[in-house]
Design a protein that fits this description.
3 domains, alpha+beta, 389 residues, 6-stranded antiparallel sheet
Length: 389
């Protein structure tokens, strides 16, 4: 798969010229993906499938390679684009900002010690070299300082001096002493602790100073949705999908939303199927499948208390709802205790059966012509169900 820097960074030169930049890493081995069902089957066998493939490929000499590319934008153009170029969720159109090949990145060696070379590695966007800078990207600005703080908490004060994180060339700074000082520095200048000083300590190099960052606008609280199109770029690739790709997208969204509750505004207190099921049915319609199911298949009968009726008579039926409590055609009682399901609900039903069923027998259950299909007995009144009616 491809890799993307996502954030908007900056390139700058000795003349003080700056360009906004986005990084791309395009795979040279093609794209291979698993559908959700395939991925679930693979994870059931091994949770490290991708890692095993990467490690095994490098061991066998199949070195993964990615072409590094960049997109460049002039500072003045950032104010002319119809989208926010510093928005992490937006991409730059290639027709307006073509990609430029920079080089090739190759992974050709596995770690000798996974803990010291992988677990103790600390990546942070604040580790910038001369010529690379930042931008008004809000998420990037937050990560510039938060990632380094997280590494100090996870690894320790001197995490940047660990062998896996240490630079390959000498670095002169004033980070001395305190916890985790396992290295030796400034042996010849032990009294130089800050700059400027009179002990001939390291001095800043003005030739690598970053040029001023061009910004504009007012700093205030505002609604980022105003004047911002959050759907146009997402719609563009969707319109290029074929029927199979769209159905897989629908199914993936529905699976991710499984369990998200939905409410029917027309009937307060009545649970309805979730949005995920509606999306899944939309996928079924697109694939030609019949999304309709029997009502009894969607409902989940928990337990029946009292005598089992000879026939499933609709009225009167007690439906247990998380909000409305007890609902029937003739009586509605809202009690927090009745929001339980299963055995708890049936236990409470038996407790109050004498009082309520006698009421229902006179109001709902007993009708002239007892014994007919339209005249349920007292036991029939105490049928508890959970789910769509």
């Amino acid at each position: 798969m491809n890799g993307y820097g996502s954030h908007t960074y900056s390139f700058w030169n000795a003349k003080g010229e700056r360009r906004r930049v986005k990084f791309h890493f395009k795979t040279q081995r093609g794209h291979r993906h698993y559908a959700s069902a395939e991925a679930a089957e693979l994870v059931g066998k091994s949770r490290e499938t991708y890692q095993e493939e990467l490690f095994g490929g490098i061991e066998a000499g199949r070195f993964p390679r990615r072409k590094m590319q960049v997109q460049l934008m002039k500072e003045a153009d950032a104010e002319k684009t119809p989208f926010n170029p510093f928005d992490l969720t937006k991409v730059w159109p290639h027709k307006d900002f073509p990609v430029i090949d920079v080089g090739m990145m190759e992974l050709n060696r596995n770690p000798d010690n996974y803990f010291t070379q992988i677990e103790m590695a600390a990546f942070s966007p604040s580790n910038a070299v001369p010529g690379v800078g930042f931008s008004p990207d809000k998420m990037l600005q937050a990560r510039v300082f938060s990632y380094a703080d997280a590494h100090r908490y996870r690894l320790g004060t001197r995490y940047e001096a660990l062998p896996v994180n240490a630079p390959r060339r000498p670095v002169h700074n004033y980070n001395k002493d305190r916890a985790m000082r396992f290295f030796d520095n400034f042996v010849a200048k032990p009294d130089a602790f800050y700059e400027p000083n009179s002990f001939d300590g390291p001095q800043q190099d003005p030739s690598v100073a970053e040029p001023p960052l061009r910004i504009s606008g007012d700093a205030a609280r505002y609604n980022h949705r105003e004047g911002n199109d959050d759907f146009g770029q997402a719609r563009a690739p969707f319109e290029l999908f074929d029927a199979g790709q769209r159905n897989r997208l629908f199914q993936n969204v529905a699976d991710a939303m499984h369990g998200v509750p939905g409410r029917d505004r027309r009937a307060p207190g009545r649970a309805v199927r979730s949005r995920a099921s509606r999306i899944r049915q939309g996928s079924a319609r697109g694939s030609g499948a019949d999304p309709r199911r029997r009502q009894a298949d969607r409902g989940r009968v928990v337990r029946r208390c009292g005598r089992r009726p000879d026939r499933l008579l609709r009225p009167p039926v007690f439906t247990l709802s998380p909000v409305a409590g007890l609902i029937s055609p003739r009586i509605r009682v809202t009690l927090p205790a009745l929001r339980k399901v299963g055995a708890r609900a049936c236990m409470i039903g038996r407790k109050f059966r004498g009082r309520w069923c006698s009421y229902l027998r006179s109001r709902s259950c007993s009708k002239p012509g007892s014994g007919t299909a339209s005249s349920p007995s007292a036991g029939d009144c105490w049928r508890w169900s959970l789910g769509p009616r």
